[in-house]
Task: structure prediction
Amino acid sequence: MVRDVAGIALDWTETGAGRPILLLHGFVPLAHDAPVLDALARAGRVMAPSHPGFGAAPRPDGFETIYDLVQLYAALLDELESPVTLVGCSFGGWIAAELALARPRRTARLVLADALGVRFSADPLHRDILDLFNTNPREVTEHAWHDVAKAPDFDSMPDAAVVAAARARDALCLYGWDPHMYNPRLGAWLHRIAPPCLVLWGESDRVVTPDYGRAYAAAIPGARFSLIPRAGHHPELEQPAAFAEAVAAFMEETR
Amino acid sequence: MKAWYLCECPYPFVPEDVLANADSVRASLPNRYVDPRLAADLYHEVLDEFLLCDELGINVISNEHHAGINCLFGASPLFLGALARQTRKVRILSLGTLISVRKDPVRIAEEYAAADVLSRGRLEIGFVKSGGSEMASGNANPVGFVERFWEAIDLIIATLTHHDGPISWEGKHYRHRSINVWPPALQRPHPPLWAATGDPASSAELARRDILNTVVLRGPEGTKKAWDAYRAARLEAGMAPAGPEKFAYSAFVYTGDTDEEGVRVGSQLLWFINTSLKQAPQYGRMLPGQSPPEAAPVLFRTKPPPGGAAGRPGAMLAGIDAERAIAQGLMFAGNPDSVVRQINEFQAKVGGFANLVLIGRSGFMDHAQAEKGLKLFAREVLPRLQTPALASAA
Result:
């Protein structure tokens, strides 16, 4: 379905009822029937939009930056009746961290899963985040999945899914190319993240390693760090049940 | 007909097994495989070939590619400067500084103005849209590069045509608050402009901007398609019809004493297609922003889908030999009579062009072979090439 937010049509998936959960996706939008959606729906009303440019809805002219995405989702949080559990995966985790800073009162709690968005290393020769665009896509997949056999395979996917993957790749590159997948200033403000925060990480993630996740958690006051076994950069896709359980348990703890 | 010599100064001396095992011979091939002492020899040889062109009446081209075996002229403006000073007669085309990967087009315009002044008004400026691997080596976002390309051209023209600076520019991609180039270019309103594209939509845009369109290695059908779009766009815009002086064709060219020699030596130029184009998917078929997402089912898959759709662009050229290259209008090679005939036949198919770009040295072709081909071309071929009076391909 489509939902209009601040005059922008969002490709929108919604399931479940109760406490609102806003799920911001990573490299690719969640399929409308992604198992993680139903698993999370046991904990509340799950809203999973596609970032403009990624899903079926068009990207408005000039809407090209993380700034635009943060303004868009800030408008959405303002529209919703109550504060949300904000869950951001990978690239969506970057947006979620920015959003928790921009709308602290509209964010009941924050879950960052294998989130991008920050640079921790002081060594300019060290790369915190795997270069997603100057690396052979086969190698990116190997870094991103615990079990590569579960990764999307263009050779066996239907045409429409390959087209969607290409749209997502273009959009991700547009928003996150430089600095590559981070905001140089976000790290300096993480200490101002107010809501309770859980940092979830795929144990086998080599796009951003668990140590990067630990640094993320250490920078956010009171944040807890937790590993998800047998998952890489996309625990919400590779271990949807464990992912949903971790989120639900955190929601209970911080009720 | 005006002839232009292009040698990209390739570096073919990387071991074959390294090239075979690398997923890309551009951008990511480690630079330990290039020996700067050999590179120095190549620089000197190719610059000497340009100086020979100056004597022979063949115009010269300074180009730019980065971090790969196909071209050692990454620091393009330096070589343009050398040509501006060391040649004395011929025109010099920069084809060109990769404007969509450089951060500041004003600096590019400044370099061009200096080269025009240094050469006393012999500079022509060519715009090229970069290869995919150059987005990596030039640290540029591949998404949006076409937008940047056009804005950079606009900014460079604005910089070159304003002679009462400073002016300022606040565009979408570029911002520069004090533009005031000293010295300005010698040619007014600005040096002649070229751009390389074989894409009909881009050709039409060049037509509206009155920029010369060079098509590189597209064969007669692709070339005619681009130039038909160019001619039509000018008429639609109410501009004067495009004559052959608005067009250039770039092909492999080698002239030998005999057909056998011309084809044998000339076939070494095909190294460019068969060896130097190999690039990893992230620089080519899966480069973001490069192709519409709808093309992904062909571009992203490693195997053709069941039922076998069409191959990828460029795939039909892989493993090409001289006979096919000549038949497809990508190469003009043989004895002088054959080269003249091949070029005239191509002219007739595409409606006429006044500029021929000779890709005259590539791969393992050596300096002596390149010079021999240039001399024979200048003496035996060039005087016999006619430019059709008016482009009239219907």
Notes: Chain A has eight helices and eight strands.
